[in-house]
Specification:
- The chain has a single domain (about 15-215), classed as Rhodopsin 7-helix transmembrane proteins (Rhopdopsin 7-helix transmembrane proteins), CATH 1.20.1070.10.
- About 70% of the residues lie in helices and about 5% in strands.
- The chain is built from seven helices and three strands; from the N terminus they run βααβαααβαα.
- Helix 5 packs antiparallel against helix 7 (about 195-220).
- It is globular.
- The relative contact order is 0.15.
- Keywords: Cell membrane, G-protein coupled receptor, Membrane, Olfaction, Receptor, Sensory transduction, Transducer, Transmembrane, Transmembrane helix.
Length: about 220
């Protein structure tokens, strides 16, 4: 039989950061200001790169995608967090919670691989400046960006398949300000040991590959 995600809860409750109304107002103002700066900065970066033909180079091509990921990454979490800080309604639907979690994993993993691609780009530019236009062709740049999104999507799919096996039948209170993997796993009334191991292996592999690639690239540059 196919195992399905059978749940007895229709929504979750995000406890947020604090219950103090004064602190919530201060945090809401601070987060809103940071979010607006993030949105304006990243949207401005993307528009400038798209409109200025002199910036149609590999480095700025990667920067535009990095800005897009940062913008999306912030937009997945911040609006709901601001809503929770402004109102007393802390509920989030089951579907929205898992959608937020999968998008968070997808964008985070994609950004790690994109940073690795950018480190490789800088390594080629500094070590082989004469061959740089040939090595970092438009096709290779697109392949690196596509590969980053593909690996990020793979990480997200692994989380989808793992989390789809969970049953929720007890508490629906998430002690966090967004739907992250660990606090959601803590609510499951089924054994999550194998799922935690699988998710940890993929998440650890993503971080290690990114860290090693970036480290090797910059060590090569310094040498």
């Amino acid at each position: 039989m196919v195992r399905r995600n059978i749940t007895h809860v229709s929504d979750f409750i995000l406890m947020g950061l604090t219950d103090s109304e004064e602190i919530r107002l201060v945090l809401c103002t601070l987060f809103l200001l940071i979010y607006l700066i993030t949105v304006l900065g990243n949207v401005g970066m993307i528009l400038i790169i798209c409109l200025d033909s002199q910036l149609h180079t590999p480095m700025y091509f990667f920067l535009s995608h990095l800005s897009f990921l940062d913008l999306s990454y912030s937009s997945v979490i911040t609006p709901k967090t601001l809503d929770n800080l402004l109102t007393s309604i802390k509920n989030i639907s089951y579907t929205n919670c898992f959608t937020q979690m999968y998008c968070f994993v997808f964008l985070g993993a994609t950004e790690c691989f994109l940073l690795s691609s950018m480190a490789y780009d800088r390594c080629v530019a500094i070590r082989n400046p004469l061959h740089y236009p040939v090595v970092m062709s438009a096709r290779r740049c697109c392949s690196l960006v596509f590969g980053s999104y593909l690996f990020g999507f793979t990480d997200s799919i692994v989380n989808v398949l793992c989390m789809n096996k969970l049953h929720f039948c007890d508490s629906n209170v998430i002690y966090h300000f967004f739907c992250d993997v660990p606090p959601v796993l803590a609510l499951s009334c089924t054994d999550t040991r194998d799922i935690e191991i699988t998710i940890s292996i993929f998440a650890g592999s993503t971080l290690m590959v990114s860290l090693i690639t970036i480290s090797v690239s910059y060590v090569s540059i310094l040498s």
